[in-house]
Write the structure tokens for this entry.
Amino acid sequence: MADVNTVHFAPWGEGANMMTKAGQLYEQAGLFDMVEPGDKVAVKLHVGELGNPNYVRPFFLKQIVDEIKARGGKPFLTDTCTYYPLKRNNAVDHMETAVANGFGFAPFIVADGLLSENGVSVVSPDPLLSEVEVGGAIHQADAMIVVSHFKGHALGGFGGAIKNLGMGGVTKKTKLEQHRLIDLVIDEDACQACGACVDACWFDLPRIENDCVVIDSPECMRCPICSTTCPEGAIRLENREKLAQGLAVAAKGVLNTFAPGKVACVNFATDVSTVCDCAPIPGEMMGQHIGIFASQSPLSIDAAGLEFIDYKRLNALHNQDCHEQVRTLARIQEPGSLTPEVVRT
């Protein structure tokens, strides 16, 4: 495997067989060198929320699964339950969504169990989080390949390998703790008690008291639905950079459960939209397909990807600094580089 400061890149080509190029990329990057016979290999992915077409195409995942098998490994696809109540909120719905979106070619294990009860608490690498509760199946795996769709994210600015690990590799408990790093502020003078936020909330948490909205439940995940719904702008989400930092801290906690050299990453900068695959809508597209990245370091691979997209547009759109994730991961001493060498295939 190439060193952690190197990212290998296969540009998207309209006249190229991208499965062939992906195979060449993986060989050049030594992506599967870590797989030993008998290894249980977690292939960490995001199967896409039902209704959103912008997730990594299943045949690319099958290519990775087949190569792991060829090395004598035992691959399984995996992700964790979402905190929000859509079609990946529990293991049953999540598995059905995986099949519906084309991922029925390999075992799909929901890492944190039926209702996110299967988590293993590990020491948080930074005081920002009290602990990191890693999905049990991920914690038990011998190796992991993190396959991520590189795109925008409404709260984190962007989503790549760090977000896939930090939010996608943990239980609902740690997901909620990360989201609640954001501060929710209500402007009582601006609030007209119209109830739009009450109707919009997926969790039925806002309530109207004394002609003003109150949102004080510890179950509130600080999602942007109420703030974007409010016609008066009376609900604000502030200090969003804390969530980006939390993603990096949680990602480091997940990575710490593996032996050195037993995690590799692939980022697909295709169908790059302004919103995450978590949304049941495709969102606004940001341009043409860019290509595929491979690296041993989630820090390096995400830092490289940001240089290929219009991250300033995402910063402005989501009121976030996309580089906060990679800077934080570097600060807490995850191997990799903020300015990696990019080697084209």
Remarks:
- The chain has a mean pLDDT of 97.
